[in-house]
Amino acid sequence: MEEKEQLFTVFEKLLNIKNQCSSDVLCECGSPDITIKQVRYLQVIDEHGEITFSRLAEITRNSKPTISEMINKFIRMEYVYKKRSPVDGRTYYICLTDKGQTICRREQIALLKLTERMAFSLDENEMSTLIGILGKVR
Predict the structure, then answer these.
(1) For the chain, which domains are there?
(2) PANTHER family from the xrefs (predicted)?
(3) Of 4, 30, 74, 81, which one's alpha carbon is 20 to 30 angstroms from that of 49?
């Protein structure tokens, strides 16, 4: 059990560093109040392009009212906008604004910063070992 506890502690520290990188990057782009969870929702929207409320609720395992509340908040923050379906006027698609797209790209930059910190902290052999070990995780 001691090894699992050590693994937990190490990964907790790694995730804290990653979250700090994310926070730093989001502050740099003028969005310090967005949470990591909210960024993840924006990334889901980004991955799917135009996505319906129902589909986003399904993917994120949330209720439609929860998604509606979140999207309305994102609209106020100017991260997304709603677009009416040309086929079915009752259906709306959620789309990222330029600001929303920027946040998604910034999160990728945060991950690169974490990777750079790891690379700076490890020698070549340690880096190869880490890549091999993490490559086994499923």
Answers:
(1) 2-131 (1.10.10.10)
(2) HTH-TYPE TRANSCRIPTIONAL REPRESSOR YETL, TRANSCRIPTIONAL REGULATOR, MARR FAMILY
(3) 30
